[in-house]
Amino acid sequence: MPDVSDQDHETRTRILLVDDAADCLSALSRLFEMSGFEVATACDGRSAIGLLDTDFKPEIVFTDLMLPDIDGLKVATAARAHAVPVVVLATGAAAFDPDQIEATGVVDLVLIKPLAFRKILSELNRVLAERRGNPECGRGSTVG
Predict the structure, then answer these.
(1) What is the pLDDT of residue 18?
(2) Could you tell me the sign of the dihedral formed by the alpha carbons of 14, 20, 21, 26, in that order?
(3) Before 114, cis peptide (omega within 30)?
(4) Residue 29 · residue 39 · CB < 8 Å
(5) Which of 27, 90, 103, 143 has the most crowded Cβ, counting Cβ within 10 A?
(6) d(Cα 89, Cα 123) in Å, to the nearest integer?
(7) Is the pLDDT score of 104 beyond 90?
(8) Rounded to 5 degrees, what are φ and ψ at 58?
(9) What mean pLDDT is predicted for residues 72-99?
(10) Which H helix or E strand runs over 72?
């Protein structure tokens, strides 16, 4: 886990969290911030896409699939256009096909909720490490 005391605003990894469930968004945001990350949040897809074009410049996006305005895959497509890796956070009970999501080519990883935060951090670090070494690495994995 990163040590917050050693990191300033300029060096902390920036995460964009997108989820319409306020409790999930708040909990994940706080956990990431306590772990040393800089976090921006959006409760819908259009707001998330708007944040991609701001000075925040996320280094990774975590998005829910089912958002109130546009689906998470549209958010993923927009993030990919900015060369930002995407992790989909999908509810285990949701009716979706992980293989179909992975086949889009715009998602680096699918995580099935509920999931321990330690596992989310582990996968976040793996995706970022793979992307920094090879932009094609990490695509299409499902964990849950």
Answers:
(1) 98
(2) positive
(3) yes
(4) yes
(5) 90
(6) 12
(7) no
(8) -60, 150
(9) 86
(10) helix 72-81
Give helix 72-81 / helix 45-52 axis angle, nearest 10°. Answer: 10
Please compute Rg for the chain using Cα positions: 14
- The answer to whether 138 touches 124, Cβ cutoff 8 Å, is no
Separation between Cα atoms, residue 72 and residue 11, nearest integer Å:
27
* Pairwise CA distance, residues 33 & 17, whole Å: 12
Give yes or no for a cis peptide into 58 (omega within 30° of 0): no
**pLDDT of residue 69 exceeding 80:** yes
For residue 94, the model assigns a pLDDT of 61
For 25-36, how does the pLDDT look when each residue is reduced to its tens digit (9 = 90+)?
999 999 999 999
Side chain identity at residue 11, one-letter code: T
Token couple for 129: 């490490």
Which string of b and e fits 103-138 if b means at least 16 CB within 10 Å? eeebbbbbbbbeeeeeebbebbebbbebbeeeeeeb
**In percent, how much of the chain has pLDDT > 90?**
62
Looking at this protein, which amino acid is placed at residue 66?
Answer: M
Place of tokens 């989310």: 120
CA distance 24 to 56: 21
